[in-house]
Amino acid sequence: MKRKRLKWTSLISVGILLFTIVIGMSGIALATEFPLTITDDLNREVTITKQPERIISLSPANTEILFALGLGEKVVGITNVCNYPSQTKEKEKIGDYDNPNLEKIIELEPDLILASHGNPIELINQLEELSYAIMYLNPKDIDHIISSITTVGKITGNDKEAAKLTKEMEERIEAVLAETSSLLENNRPRVLYVVWYKPLWTAGSGTFIDELIQKAGGINIAGDVAGWPQMNLETVIEKNPQVIIIGYSEDQPKLIEAVRNESTLDQTDAFKNNQIHTIDTDIVSRTSPRIVNALEEMAKIIHPEMFGENVSD
To answer: Domain residue spans in the chain?
Structure first.
């Protein structure tokens, strides 16, 4: 009888071990254990003592990440420019993106604050000195956005939700790349992205817009200049874009009209073939899950023959 009990005990132990190995190999996210110390994008070690219940977001992108992870009910404060999703209208505002109100933040008693590039570094330092858990995120490319979402999932105890979301994002990105990555240069339309006009400002290398254009199967005519260069119309005509994409937002109602009415651009293939399109600046510039929406829209604009008709003209 004792031998049988020992045998069954051994079998149960082996079963538990095998289950643990399978779970590990399958990539299923395990729950975060607190306290947790993690390094942020300012290379600071941030300690989260317990699973956060009161979260403040200091940027629109971080707000979108929190809501996408199902953490909307835990968000107690956001900036004035956090406008997505629609539930943000009901949230307490803590000031502007580039000038948050320290007193308001303290009043809301957060146990986690998500900061971002564009927030005053002085404020971040102040909050750190006051012993608030403040995590700074500054993704540089789409892969970094995905890893940032994983980080937010980890520090909030929502690992499983983050793993599901990032997997979906990666699958959607791969679906686009499956069509565009093998395109030869002569099958990649030349693209001009208009940030502002007049004068004409565009997006160069090192920007999310440049990465989106490339992944969507286009060639950014400003890709040989870093950052956000100003481009004269003579250069635009010389580079002859086949597609022009205008970034729009509610506070730039005349931008689209200004570009479409620029007679000098009539000489470009984009104007001749009526390839003037628009896209929401929020989705192309925010380091949030909607960057994949931007990629899919870019792909439809640049290669409608592959991805269907563009819906944002």
So the answer is: 36-170, 183-307
Alpha helices in 192-232 (DSSP H): 208-215
Q: CB under 8 Å to 71, separation ≥6 — which residues?
A: 55, 156, 158
Inform me whether the pLDDT recorded for 235 exceeds 60. Answer: yes
Mean of pLDDT values over 158-174: 98
Q: Does domain 183-307 have CATH number 3.40.1110.10?
A: no
Q: What is the mean pLDDT of residues 217-226?
A: 97
Task: Give the burial string for 63-96 (b: 16+ CB within 10 Å, else e).
Answer: bbbbbbbebbebbbbbbeebbbeeebeebeebbe
Contact 232, 200 (CB under 8 A): yes
What is the model's pLDDT at position 20? 47
Establish whether domains 36-170 and 183-307 are of one fold.
yes
What's the pLDDT score for residue 30?
56
- Judge contact between 215 and 173, C-beta under 8 A: yes
Taking the alpha carbons at both ends of the chain, their separation in whole angstroms is 78
Residue 107 has pLDDT above 90, yes or no: yes
Strand, coil or helix: 76: strand
CATH no. of 36-170 = 3.40.50.1980
